[in-house]
## 1
Amino acid sequence: AASTVALVSPDSLFDFSSKIDKVRVGLVGCGMRGQVHLDELLKRNDVEVVAIAEPDQRMIDRCNKIFAKHNKKPVTYFKGLDGYKKLYSDKKIHAVVISTPWEFHEEQTIAAMNAGKIVGLEVCGAMNLQECWNYVDTYEKTKVPVFMMENVCYRRDIMAVMNMVRKGIFGQILHGQGGYQHDLRNVLFNDGVKAYGGGVEFGEKGFSEAAWRTNHYVKRNGELYPTHGLGPIGTMMDVNRGNRITHITSMASKQAGLTDYIVKNGGADHPNAKVEFKLGDIVQTMLKCENGETILLTHDTSLQRPYNLGFRLQGTDGIWQDIGSGGFSQGFIYFEDEMKHSHKWASSEDHLKTYDHPYWKKYEAQAEGAGHGGMDFFLMNDFIECIKQNKEFPFDVYDLATWYAVTPLSEKSIEGNGSSQEMPDFTRGKYKTRKPVFGAEDYG
Ligand code: A2G
C-alpha cells in the first residue's frame, strides 16, 4: 500500500508550517542534465523556478532558450562555482535540484540540508565512503529530506516488472542484474565546442561532461556509476526496507577502448593517446544481500556497444531479461508453467503490457516527450508531489548513501584483487522495520 510516512518530521530544519501548493525550486547546475529538469519544471503549474546557479555562460544561453520556449522570463542566475551558496540564502526557495559534476555533490547537498532546502540529488557514486556517512549524519541532524533522483526506477518496463515482483509473479527472488552499459565515447570526448563528439579532447579542452567526467576515468578504477542498475534491482529486493546489502566484490578488465578511440579519431600523435586511463573498460561488481539474493552490476561505457542496461531478474517462478532501452518488446521472459516447459524465451511484451504499472497508465499522456522515454516526467512528478503531499520520497538519504557507497567500495575491492568489502548499514538497524513504498499497486 502507498506509504503514510511523512516526508518532513516536525523537528526538521525545513519549515513546513504551511501547506505547499506551489513548490519554489532552485537549480544547482544547469548543464545538459539540469536543462532536462528545467524543461520538466517549467511545464508544471505547481512549480515556480526561482533561481539557477550555473557557472558556464554557454549553458546559461541554452537555459534562456528553454525559458523562451515556455514563454517564461529567465530567472536570476548565480555564476561562479560558489553561486549555489547565494541561491541557498534565498528564503523563498523550498527545494533544490542538484545536477552538477560528481565531485561537487557532497558539499552542495550538505550545504543545502544545512540551509533547510529539500534536495533532489542527481545520480553518480561517492568519492569516498565518508561522503556517504556525511549525507546520513547531516540528514539525521537537520531532518531535511533528500530525494535520490534515480530515473531508471521509473522506466516503463522496470515499473511493470516491479509490479510483477510486488504481486509475487516471479516467486522468491534470488538474483538480479543491471548496470550502466552505454557507449559514452562521444560524451567523454569532444571538440570543446559541441557537447557530443567531434574531437578527442577532455578536461580543460573539453566541453560539458567531457570537461569533468573523463577525469574520473583517468584517476579511478571502480563501479563509477552504480545507481542505474542498483536503483531498480535494489528496490525490487527491498534493500534498506526489510533487506540490506552486506558485502561486495569487484573486478575490472584492462583499459583499451578509450585509447583506441583517441588513436582512431585523433591520431597516435595526439597527446591524449598517451593518457593512462585507470578505469578498466568492463567493471563487474557482485553484491550480496542479507536475505540471500545476489546482484551483479556492470559498468561498460568505453567500448562500442548498443545501449542496454542489461537487467535480469530471476526468481523461483520465472525470469526476465532486458535487451533494449525500456520498450515492452525489448526483452525476454520465461515462466515454465505457462510456457509448458518449452525452455524457450518469449517476448516480454504481453506480460509487461498486462502488468503495466498504474502510475504509468495514469500519467502516460503527460510523460509524452519527457526525457529518457518519459521516465524523467515521473521522476520529477514524484519529487514535487511528495513535497506537496508531505509524503516520504521512495528513494531517500539511506538509499543515496548505500547506492553511492558501491563506488568507493568497488575501488577498494579492485585494488585488493577482488577483496570482499563490507557495506555499512547506513540505516543503523532501521532497515528491519522500514516498509517498501515504491511500486505498490496504488503507488503514485
Ligand atoms: O547518458 C544517459 O542519458 C544516462 N542515463 C545518463 O545517466 C548519463 O550518463 C548520460 C550521458 O550523457 C541513462 O542511461 C538512463
## 2
Amino acid sequence: QQTSIAPTHSSQSSSEPQYAHEPLVTHIYTADPSAHVFNGRIYIYPSHDIESDIAPNAEGDHFAMRDYRVLSMDKPGGEVTEYGVALDLDDVPWASRQMWAPDAAEKDGRFYLYFPVKDQQGIFRIGVAAAEKPEGPFTNPLLIEGSYSMDPAVYKDDDNQYYLYVGGISGGQLQRWTQGNFSDTDQYPADHEPALMPKIARLNDDMVSIAEPLMDVQLLDENGKPLLAGDNDRRFFEAVWVHKHNGTYYFSWSTGDTHKIVYATGDNPYGPFTYQGVVLEPVTGWTNHHSITRFEDKWYLFYHDSSLSGGQTHLRSVKMTELIHREDGSIETISAFK
Ligand code: FUB
C-alpha cells in the first residue's frame, strides 16, 4: 500500500531549507538511508525500524527489523512517497532475522536491493533481490555466495563497474571472520594493532554474485599507516558509503562507539583511502549511518536520528540536508544534534 506525505516542516534556521533535519516520514520509523537518483527521482532505501521487546545488547538483537520500505521524492523538500513492503523477511527462505541497512543499484533498467540478514545459523549474510521498478517489489532473494557481515553499499563507477562494500564490527560480526571462516568467538585486534577494515569485491555482470573474494579496504592515517584498533574516534565500525566528486573517491563510515560519520579519500574504488575528517557529528541515539548523493547540482547527506522516538536507539527517522564540498575537496562538517 502506497502512502504519500506532504512535507510538514518547522524551520531550524533561516539559512537552511525547511526540510533540512526534519524526519522525511513520521508514520513509520526508518533508518540507515541509502539514497540514489533513479530516472531523475530521489529513491531512499532505509531500514524499517520496529518496536521490539528485546533488551539492548552488543549483538544488536533489539534491531529486529522484518521488512524493507522504499521512500521517494521528486526533489529535496518534495512530497515523500512510501510504497509499502518492498521485501519481507518471510519471503527470504534462507534468512532468520534482522533485516539491517540495505542499499540498491540499477543496471540496464533493472533494480537490485542488497540487504544484510542473519541466516538460519545466526550468521549475517548479504542477500540480493531484483525488481522492474526502483520501489520494488523485490523478488527472488538470493544469498550472495562468499558474502558475510552487514551494511552492504554498492558503488557504480563511471566505467559501469559495480563494487560491493560490506562490513561492521560488534553486532556486524566482522570480528568473527579474521581467519576466513566464521569463528564462534570474537577476534578483535589489540588497540596498538591495525583496526579491522571494511571489505570490497567487484560485482559480476549478473549483479547477484561477486567476481572476487571480499578483501580489505585499507583506511590510513595522515602518515600512511593503517588506522589502529584503539583509535575509536576514527577507526571503521560500520556503515560504508562511497561517492566520487571531482575525480576523487570519498569513502565514509560510522565510528560506532564514538558516534561520528567520518571520511577518507583515495584515487580508485579499492583504496587505500586516507583519513580526512568528520562528515557528521553524533546525532540523537547510539547509531549514526548515512549516504551522500548528488541531485542536480547539489550534494545531500541522508542520515537518521532517534529524536522522533524520544531517543530510543532502535526507533529512528531518516532525514536529509545539503552537504558542501569546499574548493579544496574537503567536506564541511555537519552538526545535526537536537
Ligand atoms: O539498523 C541496524 C544497524 O544499526 C545498521 O546495520 C547499522 O549501520 C546501524 O545503523
